[in-house]
Design goal:
The complex is a heterodimer. Chain A is of the alpha/beta class. In chain A, strands 2-1-3-4-5-6 form a six-stranded parallel beta sheet, sandwiched between helices. The longest helix of chain A has 16 residues. Chain A is globular, with a radius of gyration of 19 Å. The N and C termini of chain A lie far apart (43 Å). Chain B is α+β, with helices and mostly antiparallel strands. Chain B has two domains: 109 residues; 131 residues, Histidine kinase-like ATPase, C-terminal domain (Heat Shock Protein 90), CATH 3.30.565.10. Chain B is 73% helix and 11% strand. A five-stranded mixed beta sheet of chain B has the order 1-2-3-5-4, with helices on one face. In chain B, β1, α7 and β2 form a beta-alpha-beta unit. In chain B, α2 runs antiparallel to α3 and α6 runs parallel beside α7. The chains are: A alpha/beta, B alpha+beta. The interface between A and B is medium-sized, with 22 and 25 residues.
Chain lengths: 232, 318
């Protein structure tokens, strides 16, 4: 009887996505663990936590979590650098960056470093869980305040006329754009589409011109937002 | 100071004293020569030795007389010169003292501003890295509690949701507060975007229309200069929303040549010059302007709003 229960529990654990938390505030880690343990006990579980980047890199390599949540401001090494290191070692690992800032710039940096999402710490718990699930499914999540800032920027710069990707991009460009929005690197896009990196870069610069986007970081965020709106 | 000024007015200048001495000397020589010549002419016309003797006697008397006058004149001249020297020295001493005091005062002002910025920065960082994170953790706890209560079909579930809601609002309020105390934006996104955020945060916090305008990209690479310009804008905006009841505020950051001009305009109640002199906020604006060598101008009329402008001339070091 007991054995059966254990197997069931193990199976339950096996079906749940394992999340590793990196945050240097114990109360935040504890709060997150409780919240996820309560509100998403069916599909998510916390498999470990740490307060520093060095420990995070070691433990993630050892226990292979399904997703890592990284606080943007860690003592000693910031979350963006940690995201870069984790991304370089684990190509497919979904990484969510948690932050107190609502500035677009931080979201851009996080996504550029290879994160699959950027979540504000004071967002609703529903949004937080949605972000986790989206990243686990291979998508990209960006906080609402960040995406509205991007929309404000587009409006301010009078670029609304040229901003619809589906209307202005060729099929191939749209393909590249949507893969970019799914947190793929240039190399990954090239591999998936059987094209050279150079060709992908040409596509990206053409997309930038067509959408009136100035920086690569902004392009990533725009792509992520577009993928979000298409899959919503 | 007043005493030194009076002294200067009463006494002739050193130059004029020297000139009059030279004039006296020339006059003495010419007069002696005239006396000698006329004595010689007289003696010659009489063709008499005794007359020549009288002429010589007259000449030596005149010479002696002028020698004495000259000597007395010289002495008084020397006294004058010594006094002038003394006055000049004490004037220079006073000026040096004044310059030193001014420099000390300026250093003290800069130090006060620096300490103020440091203390504010520390409080802002503590709020951001400490209190805000604690609040975040508490919000997650409260969300979990609400979930537990909902599961138990407790009537308290709404209360728990309300607590979560309040905690989130408190978090965003403290985040804005921390940002005001320590503008992390300045380091991360630069002056112009930081001012834009100042505009949107102020509009959000005080329900006022705050517009930021920057016609062409303006970058200020010197962090100290950027911080002072940001603080000047912040202070002016603060004055406008808190004391003038302004409905519209306009923040402008523009460049003409190598001059960066920051302006904050409002349509509030304005103030009289006396009131402005007493206000700490405006004094701080002037101090900050001085600290970076900028020209600050505050125009305000009661009932007509206020314009604060700050022109900063960029040099190689900025």
């Amino acid at each position: 009887m007991n054995e059966k229960k254990e197997t069931q529990a193990q199976e339950g654990n096996r079906n749940r996505a394992r999340i590793f938390i990196v945050d240097d505030h114990p109360i935040v880690r504890d709060g997150l663990a409780r919240l996820i343990g309560k509100k998403a006990k069916g599909d998510l579980m916390i498999c470990g936590e740490t307060d520093n980047a060095v420990d995070a890199i070691k433990t993630v390599a050892k226990i292979h979590p399904d997703l890592v949540m990284v606080d943007i401001s860690l003592r000693g090494c910031d979350g963006i650098e940690l995201t870069k290191s984790l991304r370089s070692q684990h190509n497919k690992l979904p990484i969510l960056v948690l932050s107190m800032h609502d500035e677009l710039l931080y979201a851009e940096r996080a996504l550029h470093a290879g994160a699959n999402g950027y979540v504000m710490k004071n967002e609703s718990s529903e949004n937080l869980l949605q972000a986790i699930r989206k990243a686990l499914a291979g998508g990209v999540y960006v906080s609402e305040s960040v995406s509205s800032e991007i929309l404000r920027r587009i409006k301010r710069e009078g670029r609304d006329g040229v901003s619809s990707p589906a209307a202005s991009l060729s099929n191939r460009e749209l393909e590249v754009f949507s893969l970019l929005g799914r947190a793929r690197t240039t190399r990954q896009i090239a591999d998936e589409l059987y094209l050279s990196i150079k060709t992908i870069e040409t596509h990206l610069s053409r997309i930038k011109v067509k959408l009136g986007v100035e920086t690569y970081n902004e392009l990533i965020v725009r792509a992520a937002l577009w993928v979000n709106s298409e899959t919503a | 100071m007043a005493h030194i000024k009076n002294n200067r007015k009463e006494r002739p200048t050193l130059g004029s004293v020297k000139l009059s001495a030279r004039r006296n000397k020339v006059f003495a020589v010419v007069f002696s020569l005239v006396v000698l010549t006329s004595a010689c002419v007289w003696a010659y016309s009489l063709r008499s030795l005794s007359a020549a003797g009288v002429a010589l006697l007259l000449f030596s008397i005149a010479g002696g007389l002028f020698y004495r006058i000259q000597k007395r004149e010289n002495e008084s001249l020397q006294r004058e010169v010594a006094e002038h020297k003394k006055t000049k020295e004490s004037l220079e001493e006073a000026r040096a003292g004044l310059e030193q005091r001014t420099a000390e005062l300026r250093r003290a002002n800069e130090e006060v501003l620096r300490i103020n910025d440091t203390v504010q920065g520390n409080i802002g960082r503590d709020l951001h890295d400490g209190l805000l994170q604690q609040l975040t953790g508490l919000t997650y706890f409260s969300d979990t509690l609400a979930e537990n209560l909902a599961e138990a079909a407790s009537p308290c579930v709404d209360g728990a949701h309300e607590i979560s809601e309040h905690l989130r609002r408190l978090t965003s309020w403290i985040r804005d507060l921390a940002k005001g105390l320590y503008p992390t934006d300045l380091d991360n996104i630069g002056l112009a975007p930081a001012l834009e955020r100042l505009a949107s945060t102020t509009a959000h916090l005080f329900s006022t229309s705050v517009v930021f305008e920057c016609n062409e990209p303006v970058t200020v690479s010197n962090r100290q200069v950027a911080l002072h310009l940001y603080r000047i804008a912040q202070e002016a905006v603060n004055n406008a929303v808190k004391h003038s009841g302004a409905k519209h505020i306009h923040i402008g950051l523009n460049r003409s040549g190598d001059t960066i001009v920051l302006t904050v305009k409002d349509d509030g109640s304005g103030f009289s010059p006396e009131k402005a002199a007493a206000g700490m906020g405006l004094q701080t604006i002037h101090f900050r302007g001085k600290a970076i060598g900028a020209v600050v101008d505050v125009k305000s009329d009661a009932g007509k709003g206020t314009i604060v402008s700050c022109s900063f001339q960029e040099s190689d070091k900025s």
